[in-house]
Specification:
CATH architecture: 3-Layer(aba) Sandwich
Bound molecules: flavin mononucleotide
Number of domains: 1
Radius of gyration: 18 Å
Distance between the termini: 50 Å
Strand content: 15-25%
Strand order of the largest sheet: 1-6-5-4-7-9-8
CATH class: Alpha Beta
Order of helices and strands: HEHHEEEEEHEHHEHE
Length: about 240
Amino acid sequence: MEVSTSIGPQFQESTKYYRGRPVAQVPGWAAPPETYKVYESYLERVALPEPQTGGAPLWDAIAERRSQRRFSGESLTLEELSQLVWATQGLTGATGGIELRAAASAGALYPNETYIIAQAVDGVTAGVYHYDIRAHELGMLAEGDYSEDLSQACLEQTWLKRAGAVFVWGAVVARCAWKYQNRAYRYLYLDAGHLGAQLQLAAQALDLGSCNVAAFFDNEVATLVGIDGLTEVAVYLTAVGRV
Ligand SMILES: Cc1cc2nc3c(=O)[nH]c(=O)nc-3n(C[C@H](O)[C@H](O)[C@H](O)COP(=O)(O)O)c2cc1C
């Protein structure tokens, strides 16, 4: 079959698994990549309340979920933010020495790091934060109101300015490519899709509005959260706010 020379079909074709073509091989289980990004220091740490389970039925959340872009601008609570981060990347189990998180990830490699642009969250200074998963804390990377920059970086989607918090997922490519080579580029996005979907359901369960965003100037979003856009790429965003 003739494959178009444009990059999309080329990528799809050359990362397919075929019988008779070697599938991605792990270069050595002895040296798996680090699945947590560790910052030497943060400007400030925000401890998140203990996540709660029980409560809102999943079926209602699925039935009622809708993308919301009209936020009231009122603040989220720290408890709500805690639930939201936990519902996507919180630690929920372990097997064979591997820590497992709320959302599924190819090969349990969890390439996506969570950044949060806090715009209106009770008790949280506006700024850019990184989610420290093991500590269940937010670490501040930059202080300030970044709502205008974010909106501009997302193709002038001005509705983003009234969100309480905007989640940005940045994928550490090597973490996934270590096992899957170029096919990893599929998995980064699949993984991020799970994160966005789970975050929307969690937001719905808390009676909050949310909307996923994939229309953005990649390097501008990367710069906003302090990643290089090459070894760690901005893949997806989800805005959450009160409606
Ligand atoms: C991968 C993906 C990217 C999206 N990007 C945007 C976006 O950049 N801006 C936006 O306003 N909505 C965006 N959306 C939301 C879709 O427009 C929305 O999911 C769709 O209209 C269906 O509506 P529903 O989510 O209410 O069911 C995106 C959704 C997905 C799944």
